[in-house]
Amino acid sequence: MDFMLTEELKALQKKAREFAIREVLPVSGKYDESEEFPLPVIKKAWEQGLLNLGIPKKYGGLGYGLLSSCIVVEEISSACPGIATSIFDNNLGAEPILIGGNEEQKQRILSELVNTFKLIAFATSEPMMGSDVAGMKCKAEKDGDEYILNGNKFWITNGGYADYITVFATIDPEQKHKGIAAFIVDTKSEGVKLGKHIPKLGQRSSNTVSVGLKDVRIPKENVLAKPGRGFVLAMQTFAHTRPAIGAFAIGCARSAMEYSIDYAQKREAFGRLIGNYQVIQEKIANMYKDIEAARLLTYKAAWEADQGMDNNLSSSVAKAFASDVAMNVTTEAIQIFGGYGYLRTYPVEKLFRDAKLYQIYEGTSEIQRIVISRFVMKGYEHAMPFLGKKRN
Ligand SMILES: Cc1cc2nc3c(=O)[nH]c(=O)nc-3n(C[C@H](O)[C@H](O)[C@H](O)COP(=O)(O)OP(=O)(O)OC[C@H]3O[C@@H](n4cnc5c(N)ncnc54)[C@H](O)[C@@H]3O)c2cc1C
Predict the structure, then answer these.
(1) DSSP code for 23
(2) Other CB atoms closer than 10 Å to residue 28's CB: what's the count?
(3) Which CATH fold topology does 7-115 show?
(4) How confident is the model at residue 392, as a pLDDT?
(5) CA 242 – CA 231 distance, rounded (Å)
(6) Which pLDDT value is given to residue 107?
């Protein structure tokens, strides 16, 4: 085992950190206040090769593995979680094509994303369904070699600005996961209606919209997964994108910790720096140890994916753990800042609002625990002998 980053990864981390400090941090508060979409920043990320991280060299991309991507994501998120979500949503949108697309689709769409500045979003969720992906209602009706889509998608990140959306829809809601197919939808197609930005608690610079689909005709070449294959494709996509949510959360928590250390070494109470009080030191020690643990779990989940292993379990563990760490660390950061933590004067108030989303999108913390408990209760191999007879 080797816990050291290679020289190549250190250089990538440095590049991403410099971009984050130069291009993202100075505008983080402005975009949060205005809830504007940070299009110029995303474009700069594309120009610098920091968008579309996972696209293979074969299609003109940089061919980063998931571990490399997580290193970049942590840096950008530490400057602004909302802008990071906007930048890396292309990874989520393109992942189903990377995993399930045919060669022609990969050549056409992935190369286009690399060569021209285009955004691609991802849509499983609907107004009445998020966690229960197999319960989607958006209809896909076969018409010769083509499909016709009808229904509504909701909470679609970057949706208002996307050129393409990978849309999951069902041929028959009664068939649950067996009926789900996936499509590449060009948002300029007739019948696609992109909604207005929906205001949010945090990550306000990320664009969140509804997407209406009315008799949207999908040509044969944009059918990504046939009915029955779409559900598996969505789950495989999440296994590859959840480690990045871990990395988002770590970046957010890391900044909250750094601001806390800084503040604890400047603020005095009862004639002493608050950093001299053991209760504050304990809070900071807990932040550090939890961030370290979250990063190791995230790297493991990413590494497993890079080895071609099934990382469904480790990605759920990493996402669930890192999301809780981000929420706890940002909460404690506000506590360390006292009343000032509650004001918009310091950045910890924003990080606290931004952190909450990690426990919700790409599978809530409850859903991650369902994935984990299914394995632990059934698939986990005990080292110790069973107490009495093993139950079947
Ligand atoms: C800002 C934002 C951006 C998003 N971006 C996207 C996007 O780009 N594309 C996309 O497709 N979706 C996106 N989503 C949707 C997101 O994935 C869903 O909100 C999420 O999966 C939860 O679904 P829900 O909101 O319908 O909650 P529900 O599924 O209604 O769940 C409500 C509560 O019940 C719990 N719950 C549900 N089922 C169970 C169960 N079996 N056992 C125990 N508890 C359960 C949940 O954990 C949650 O606490 C986004 C959401 C947000 C807020």
Answers:
(1) I
(2) 24
(3) Butyryl-Coa Dehydrogenase, subunit A; domain 1 (1.10.540)
(4) 64
(5) 16
(6) 98
**For residue 263, what are its two tokens?**
């503040």
**Ligand 1 pocket by Cβ (under 6 Å):** 121-125, 129-131, 155-157, 200, 208, 357, 360-364, 366-367, 370
State the maximum Cα–Cα separation within the chain, in Å, rounded to a whole number.
79
Q: What distance in angstroms lies between residue 15's CA and the mean position of ligand 1's atoms?
A: 34
| Statement: the pTM of the whole predicted model exceeds 0.90 | yes
Instruction: List C-alpha distances in Å: 182 to 155, 168, 191.
Output: 18, 4, 17
CATH of region 232-379: 1.20.140.10
- Residues in the chain where the model's pLDDT stays below 50: none
Look up residue 52 and give its two tokens: 């579309």
* Look-up of token digits 């409850």: 366
CATH topology of domain 120-228: Butyryl-CoA Dehydrogenase, subunit A; domain 2 (2.40.110)
Give buried/exposed letters for 160-191 (b at 16+ CB in 10 A, else e): bbbbbbbbbbbbebeeebebbbbbbbbbeeee
Give the model confidence (pLDDT) of 266-305 as tens digits: 999 999 999 999 999 999 999 999 999 999 999 999 999 9
pLDDT at 391: 67
Q: Whose CA is nearest to atom 24 of ligand 1?
A: 130
Cα(108) to centroid(ligand 1), Å: 32
pLDDT value, residue 243: 98
Nearest to 69 by CA among 315, 262, 377, 391: 315
Check if the beta carbon of residue 173 is closer than 8 Å to that of residue 179: yes
- Residue from 293, 296, 311 nearest 240 by CA: 311
Q: Which of 364, 365, 367, 374 to mutate to test the pocket of ligand 1 (most atoms within 8 A of CB)?
A: 364
